Amino acid sequence: MISSSQKVLDVAGMSPQVAKWSRTFDLMIIVIAAFLVWAVTHISFLLFAGDWDFFIDWKDRQYWVLITPIVTMMMAAAFQGLFWHLFRLPIGATASLLLFLVGVWIVRYHSWQGMAHFPISLVLPSTCLMGALALDAILCLTRSWVLTGVFGGVVYGLMFFPSNWIYLAPYFQPVEHMGQMTSLADLIGYTFPRSGTPEYIRIIERGTLRTFQDSANWVSAFFSAFICIFVYIAFWWMAIAACGTRFIPAGARYKAIFGGSSAKADAPASAKAEVAP
Question: Are 62 and 209 in contact (CB under 8 A)?
Fold first, then answer.
């Protein structure tokens, strides 16, 4: 009895050796694409939101909750659009942010802890995987980028702070330091000063959102969810535009340079061939 895989090879006209090399080539493409996705997501995050996610005492309740979901939504929406448009796979957001998170952990362990000697408890990276899973699940259920952008963008922005609060909560416990009350995160920051960046620019919780007292993080989260809707739509269409194939028409002179012939020159010859007996 012939197996289903052998039937596919027979129809395709491929020998087992050719099929083996074809699978090897596909595996190489997947590995290279994974490194490219990792590089693109990591570089874009460093450019737009890197400072807000470096240290545990810099993860404030205003701008960190606002900026990080918006920046990561750019990557999630773009790669979700690519995967859905080209392969009809609702895994683009989860795959891209998972690769991004793996890359960030490697950098934090190798560079920040291994080379700069910061404790890993000071440089824990944030995660957006819960929001990415919800984004892909909504696209899989609705099969509509509009509904995914509206509802998925809101869910993505609102899930960021609760999913990160699991590991952040212990670092915001009050402790006494030299007769003053501070948080455990700030105490770690005092112990390991960062001389490269002036600390006064990180005193950011003195803004107008302090009038909301303990609700400042949720005000930032809801505003981030609102902005994520428009960011998703913009980067989805940018990804769709990048998937298209564009051809630039070449003139007769350009074709002659590379040894080709123009359509006008071929037309009389074909007409003569039709008229000839």
Answer: yes
Question: For 2, phi and psi rounded to 5 degrees?
Answer: -80, 130
Least confident of 30-34, 107-111, 210-214: 210-214
Q: Could you read off the pLDDT of 19-66 as tens digits, one per residue?
A: 788 788 889 988 998 999 889 899 999 988 877 888 888 887 788 888
Please list the helix, strand and coil fractions of the chain in percent, rounded to the nearest 5, in that order.
75, 5, 20
Tokens, residue 96: 């891209």
Could you tell me the residue ranges of all domains in the chain?
48-243
CA 99 to chain centre: 8
CA distance 232 to 80: 10
**pLDDT digits 0-9 by tens, 58-106:** 887 788 888 999 999 999 999 999 999 998 999 999 999 999 999 999 9
Length of the chain: 277
Residue for token pair 């909504």: 138
The whole-angstrom separation of Cα 34 and Cα 28 is: 10
Architecture of domain 48-243: Up-down Bundle (1.20)
| pLDDT of residue 233 exceeding 90 | yes
Identify which of 174, 223, 41, 55 has the alpha carbon closest to the alpha carbon of residue 126. 55
Q: Determine the straight-line distance between the first and last CA of the chain, rounded to whole angstroms.
A: 56
Residue 121 has which token pair?
């408890």
Which DSSP state fits 59? -
Phi, psi of 197 (to 5 degrees): -125, 125
How many beta carbons lie within 10 A of that of residue 190, not counting itself? Answer: 13
pTM to 2 decimal places = 0.79
84 CB-near residues (< 8 Å, 6+ apart): 90, 92, 139, 145
